[in-house]
Amino acid sequence: MGYWDSILLGFSVCLQPINLVYCFIGVFVGTLIGVLPGVGPVATISMLLPATFKMSPVGAIIMLAGIYYGALYGGSTTSILVNIPGETASVVTCLDGYQMARKGRAGPALGIAAFGSFIAGTFSVIALTFMAPPLATIAIRFGPPEYFSLLVLGLTLLIYLAHGSMIKALMMACVGLLLSFIGLDNISGFERFTYGFATLEDGIGLVPVAVGIFGLGEVLSNVEESIGKREIFQTKISNLLPNRRDWKDSAMPITRGTVFGFLLGILPGGGHVLASFASYAIEKRFSKHPEKFGQGAIEGVAGPESANNAGAGGQFIPLLTLGIPASPVMALMLGALVIFGLQPGPLLISRSPDLFWGVIISMYIGNIMLLILNLPLIGLWVHVLRVPYPILFPLIVLFCLIGAYSISNNIFDVFIMVLFGIIGYLMKKVRFEAAPMLLGMVLGLMMEDALRQSLIMSGGSFNIFLNRPLSAAFILAAIILLAIPAVRGGKKILFSKLAEIEE
Amino acid sequence: MKRFDQIGSIVCLIVAAVAIWQSAIIPMGRISKPGPGFLPFWVGVILALLSGVLWIEASFRKPSSEPVRFLSGEGKWPYVIFTGVALLVYTGLLEILGFRISTFLLLLFLFWFVGKQKWWVVFLGSFLVTLFTHLLFRVALKVQLPTGLFRF
């Protein structure tokens, strides 16, 4: 089947009324949870996953994908108007977006965020359309060594791009890996770390942990910080269409953010959050006026908002072509596909073309829906922001509880969710990042299977990872990423010692 | 931050020690045919080493000018602790009292104690939210929710 036939197939699937409704529900719910601080796409998808069991697989994935990229659109609204990120990827948008709002430029800030998101989202879907099939063809040739090396690279990339200490990020990745090993061993069926508890035989579910850390942990932090006292900017939002000067200033940041965000999204461990942070750093470096950043520079909104949406599209590539979830959200998508009896990976495109192309095409339509939802209907989301947090947070808590319970109707999952909610709150306080832990948990069993199969293939020689070109390239890239901070740190120490001697 | 990094490294060291000890009990296999204990053991070793590095690094670090404060936001600390405790109690009661009764009680507590709402908002809000979630999840989406000992 050629590209155009595939795209037409995608449109025929996506334009079915029921799938359009699912797409709209997805992007609407996504925008809503993006606007609301304290609940992100991971928690929402986890909560709504059980509700999709009665849907068709195509409709379910279209809706879940819509929630994901919809949340990224909505997240910027809260950042710009309230100075609180509605979603993790929108943290950097607060820096300049809120300052623009304070200067009476909330309209152009919201406008450029929505347009940048639309342009980047559309680009990433086009790139996904044309890159996924050839990548799937290459991926068929991947063996266990390539899978293992790619997973190592993904985890390393996330650690390298961690916001704080790299050692702490590495430690969290190790804790995530250890959590993933709980339960029956995939190869031998041996019980590990179960301590006789039958409920632990299936391991600790990703959903309760993700909802706990990203949902409940966030709620506990907000309760402490008294988010109920948040102030919404009371100015009238006008001039949503950016002027010529705004477009001129934003053109390159949007372009760079789109390309960079997409590339970062493809790599396991990259993802939309890191894309937005990295884009902000890049724009500041490229800018002729870096001192304006943090004081209302439109580039500081346009770049990161484009990057996080492009990153979201890019993340579907490893999932749909390799079966590797690049982030916790994608791990939930993988879980949803498996529940529907589908195996994500190189063969998905030939075995379930209606799902593959239907979901991709739904993203074009979803992006258009989002542009309409986020510009002409901005007033609606401002009203949502005015719901007091003391009313809102019991609802978020309740949805977290239902989401954790209904995934397998097990009270143990609710306990795990509450436990990880408390752990997530503590981790946030002492700045131990949750993302490497969750990715370690997602990739742990895949890494282990790939490592053990590779060592069996090679008779116990680790050279198998270096003898195969692709695998060697991935390992080399991972080593470089780990070495850069060490070299930088060494240089810093050396220079400070030299300075001390000179003094 | 320095002190919390040291505490964090000790917690992770304990986790690593448990992982190493428990992995050593299960078959490790050979390098040419690794067993179920192989990777957990080595991940435990790496975590132990990293914990040591963090502890040493934190010990030699100058105290940060930005101290970590627990339970000290404007929202008053009891809210965080009581929300956590209420959720643990809810988890314990869910299968005994069933979804509707225990959810109603949890919401009463959260709206009243943490949300500081007026009494009629507390009761009406708790009732309506419980009813709404029951209708949405149990009736419309057919999600299984615990009925408890009273089958209610």
Folded structure, characterized:
The complex is a heterodimer of chains A (503) and B (152). With 503 residues, chain A is an all-alpha fold. Helices cover 74% and strands 1% of the residues of chain A. Chain A has 22 helices and 2 strands. A two-stranded antiparallel sheet of chain A has the order 1-2. In chain A, helix 2 crosses helix 16 (353-374), helix 4 runs antiparallel to helix 6 and helix 6 (106-139) packs parallel to helix 10. The N and C termini of chain A lie far apart (72 Å). Chain B has 152 residues and is an all-alpha fold. Chain B is built from 4 helices and 2 strands. Chain B has helices at 2-25, 38-60, 77-114, 119-140; strands spanning 29-30, 33-34. In chain B, strands 1-2 form a two-stranded antiparallel ribbon. In chain B, a hairpin with a 2-residue loop joins strand 1 (29-30) and strand 2 (33-34). Chain B is flat, with a radius of gyration of 24 Å. The interface between A and B is large, with 63 and 72 residues.
Write the layout of secondary structure elements.
The complex is a heterodimer of chains A (503) and B (152).
Chain A: H1 3-14, H2 17-35, H3 41-48, H4 57-82, H5 91-102, H6 106-139, H7 144-160, H8 166-180, E1 183-184, E2 191-192, H9 206-225, H10 244-266, H11 271-286, H12 299-314, H13 316-322, H14 328-339, H15 348-351, H16 353-374, H17 378-385, H18 389-406, H19 411-429, H20 434-458, H21 464-467, H22 469-502
Antiparallel strand pairs in A: 1-2
Helix pairs in contact in A: 1-16, 2-4, 2-16, 3-4, 3-9, 3-14, 3-18, 4-5, 4-6, 4-12, 4-14, 4-16, 4-17, 5-6, 5-12, 6-10, 6-12, 6-13, 6-16, 7-8, 7-20, 7-22, 8-20, 9-18, 9-19, 9-20, 10-11, 10-12, 11-12, 18-19
Chain B: H1 2-25, E1 29-30, E2 33-34, H2 38-60, H3 77-114, H4 119-140
Antiparallel strand pairs in B: 1-2
Helix pairs in contact in B: 1-2, 3-4
